[in-house]
Design brief:
The protein is mainly beta. Helices cover 0% and strands 50% of the residues. The strands form 3 sheets. The chain has a 6-stranded antiparallel sheet with strand order 3-2-9-8-12-13, with no helix packed on it. Strands 5, 6, 7, 10 and 11 form a 5-stranded antiparallel sheet that branches. A two-stranded antiparallel ribbon has the order 1-4. The chain is globular. The relative contact order is 0.23.
Length: 203
C-alpha cells in the first residue's frame, strides 16, 4: 500500500546582524566599505527574515536530476601535513521568498583538505558559518542566517565536524541567507580556503 507523507516545515525566524569581530551575528546584511576606505569599518544594517514552506512528497519520488555546476574554483589549501588542492563547485543559489539557499560541493583533488573547522567563523566552529555572499551592486555582505539572536543561536547551514577529505573525497554543503533585493541577479560567494567566486547567478 502506498502512503502519502505530508511534510510541513515550520517557519524559521532568521534575525540578527552581520557577524563582526567578537560578536555573534545572524542571517543579515552588512554594508561594505568602499575600496578607498580600507581603514574604515563597514556599517551594519540589521534585518530579520522568516519563511514558511510546505512540501508534499510521494512514496515514489521522480528520478533525481544530475546536479549542474553553475560556478567553480580550484585552489591550493592548507599547510604542513594538512595541505592539498580543493575544488569548490556551486550547484545551486536559489531565491525562496525572503531567503536565499546556497548549495555546493568541496572535493579534495590532491593531498588532504580540512573541512573540520576550515569554513567556520571561529576555531571551534565546525560549520560553514564563515561563508558569505557579496552584493557588488549595493555594496552589501550577507552572512549565514542563524536560528536566533542569542549566544546559543546556531547557523542554518552544514555541520562539517570530523571531515578531513582525502584525495577524491567530497563534501556536499549548504547555507541559508537573507535574500538580496529582487533586482540583484548575481552575487559573489566568498569561502574560507577557497576565496571569492564571482558572478554566481541567482535562480
Amino acid at each position: 500500500m502506498r502512503k502519502t507523507i505530508a511534510l510541513a516545515v515550520a517557519a524559521v525566524a532568521l534575525a540578527g546582524c552581520g557577524v563582526l569581530p567578537g560578536r555573534q551575528g545572524g542571517g543579515g546584511e552588512e554594508k561594505q566599505a568602499p575600496a578607498a576606505s580600507a581603514g574604515q569599518e563597514p556599517s551594519a544594517t540589521v534585518t530579520a527574515t522568516s519563511t514558511e514552506m510546505a512540501t508534499d512528497t510521494a512514496t515514489e519520488p521522480p528520478p533525481a536530476k544530475p546536479e549542474q555546476v553553475i560556478a567553480q574554483r580550484e585552489v591550493k589549501v592548507g599547510d604542513g601535513d594538512m595541505h592539498g588542492k580543493a575544488r569548490a563547485e556551486i550547484t545551486a543559489l536559489k531565491r525562496q521568498g525572503k531567503l536565499l539557499s546556497l548549495a555546493w560541493t568541496i572535493t579534495a583533488t590532491d593531498g588532504k583538505v580540512n573541512m573540520h573547522n576550515g569554513m567556520g567563523s571561529a576555531t571551534l566552529d565546525y560549520t560553514v558559518s564563515a561563508v558569505s555572499l557579496i552584493d557588488p551592486v549595493n555594496a552589501k555582505r550577507y552572512r549565514v542566517a542563524r536560528n536566533g539572536t542569542g549566544e546559543d543561536a546556531q547557523c542554518v547551514c552544514s555541520d562539517t565536524q570530523g571531515q578531513f577529505l582525502e584525495k577524491g573525497e567530497a563534501s556536499t554543503l549548504y547555507a541559508v541567507f537573507a535574500a538580496p533585493p529582487v533586482d540583484v541577479t548575481k552575487v559573489n560567494v566568498e569561502m574560507p580556503m577557497i576565496g571569492v567566486i564571482t558572478d554566481v547567478p541567482i535562480s
